[in-house]
Amino acid sequence: MGVPDTGDTAWMLASSALVLLMTPGLAFFYGGMVRAKGVLNMIMMSISAMGLITVLWVLYGFSETFGDSKGGVVGDPGKYFGLAHLISGNGKAAVAASGSTPASDAVNIPLFGTIPALVFVAFQLMFAIITVALISGAVADRLKFSSWLIFAGVWATVVYFPVAHWVFAFDGVTGEHGGWIANNLKAIDFAGGTAVHINAGAAGLALALVLGRRKGWPQTPFRPHNLPFVMLGAGLLWFGWYGFNAGSATSANGAAASTFLTTTVATGAAMLAWLLVERIRDGKPTSLGAASGIVAGLVAITPSCSSVNVLGALAIGLVAGIVCALAVGLKFKFGFDDSLDVVGVHLVGGVLGTLMVGLVAAPEAPAAVKGLFYGGGFDQLWRQAVGAGAVLVYSFVIAGLIALALKYTIGLRSSDEDESEGLDESEHAETAYDFAALGGTNALGRATSREA
Alpha carbon of 90 to those of 27, 251, 294: distances in Å? Predict the structure, then answer.
């Protein structure tokens, strides 16, 4: 209990809104990458996460993530159930008597650090929402919407909330004891390289494997239908990511400033590196490559933004841009249909960013840790590797089990007819573009009456 710092509170409210904006940004990013007959379904999978995860979070998700730890594995779901004991009025500092103004005592409200507890609740909610939404990119054009909602709710409950507890729940902040990765392993994941990106990427891979390939893939090209959507989404993601990374400082301080800058540097470097790969490999740099490079850089710098200097951020961005640009081709080599490259960008980028903390962490950065290249030896590197590996394996296995359970009960995949028609029509009875009204062709490519 106490009186909140107004500057920190204002920054964290703004950061929460920035992170929420990332999910509509992701919806545009993913929506532009699919065909015209599936864009609404793709957008709906992201937007629906905003409603579903919000309800679960305020009921038990926050408590499961930040309640008192049960063996470092999961928080007590009952401690803050329904946000019990956190709803409060306005905190005020004590006022001394002055002239005709009487003295007044301080009005204390629940705090986590220097900010109202509810601001922290809201900030972390936005992380939970976008983590679930990220998974959807791996299963575009073929997953039943009802099965998506069930998968998302169950996965958030048994995977995201516990894993976020491992990574984000520090001893003595929201509960007496926190998660094992943050407090025992002491791996560094400032803003969610493991809890968000490796977690979502591994789940997307498992779900894609159980679901199977899209009809015609890989022989049929599945080209993005709206590249301006993709570019808009990438821009919104970059903008919102400042709340994601700099907001994770939970204060308007030097750490927020440092992470703001390293995020920018790594993202710019990754975009240029991706374009260079395209230029050498394909002969032309593309707008889709620029957007993908932006996201790869943002992903890779997420766990490491507090532990590197500018040179480290440049290195992480360059490596992420090159490696992720090459990694998106793995699905063709190994035959798994990761529709929108969740594995190649988020899983691979998350692993790279997490491991590179152990290499390029600089002692002058806010985390004050020495990586291998700064004389720190392999100590931090093995901690990063264990943290990344544990999250990857846990999320992949449990997501696969959830997907299999749905496949053999209510069904997971849309029918061949629905997939051919497009999920916008079959799942939502809508189309994104009314071509018929313009005298062109409709979303299924049939001639309109004007052309007849």
Answer: 35, 19, 40
Enumerate the H helices of 99-198 as residue ranges: 117-135, 145-155, 161-168, 180
- 3-state per-residue secondary structure call for 398-428: HHHHHHHHHHCCCCCECCHHHHHHCHHHHHH
Task: Give the other-Cβ count within 10 Å of 172's Cβ.
Answer: 9
451 beta partners: none
Q: Give me the tens of pLDDT residue by residue for the chain, a chain 452 residues long.
A: 888 889 999 999 999 999 999 999 999 999 999 999 999 999 999 999 999 999 999 999 999 999 999 999 999 999 999 998 888 878 777 777 777 778 777 778 888 999 999 999 999 999 999 999 999 999 999 999 999 999 999 999 999 999 999 999 999 888 889 999 999 999 999 999 999 999 999 999 999 999 999 998 888 888 999 999 999 999 999 999 999 999 999 999 999 999 999 999 999 999 999 999 999 999 999 999 999 999 999 999 999 999 999 999 999 999 999 999 999 999 999 999 999 999 999 999 999 999 999 999 999 999 999 999 999 999 999 999 999 999 999 999 999 999 999 999 999 999 889 988 989 899 999 999 986 655 555 545 554 433 33
Q: Measuring CA to CA, which residue among 265, 302, 274, 101 is closest to residue 191?
A: 302
73 to 13, 127, 167, 184, 390: CA distances (angstroms): 29, 19, 10, 11, 12
pTM of this structure: 0.92
Phi-psi region of 441 (alpha: psi -120 to 50; beta: other; left: phi over 0): beta
Could you write out the three-class secondary structure of 58-96?
HHHHHHHHHCCEECCCEECCCCCHHHCCCCCCCCECCEC
Q: What is the sign, positive or negative, of the torsion defined by CA atoms of 366, 367, 373, 375?
A: positive
Q: Which residues contact 378 (CB under 8 A, 6 or more apart)?
A: 358, 372
First-to-last C-alpha distance (Å) of the chain: 72
What are the chain's domains? 6-83+106-413 (1.10.3430.10)
**Residue 115 β-bridge partners:** 112
The four Cα atoms 171, 172, 176, 181 give a dihedral, to 10 degrees, of: -10
Q: How many residues are there in the chain?
A: 452
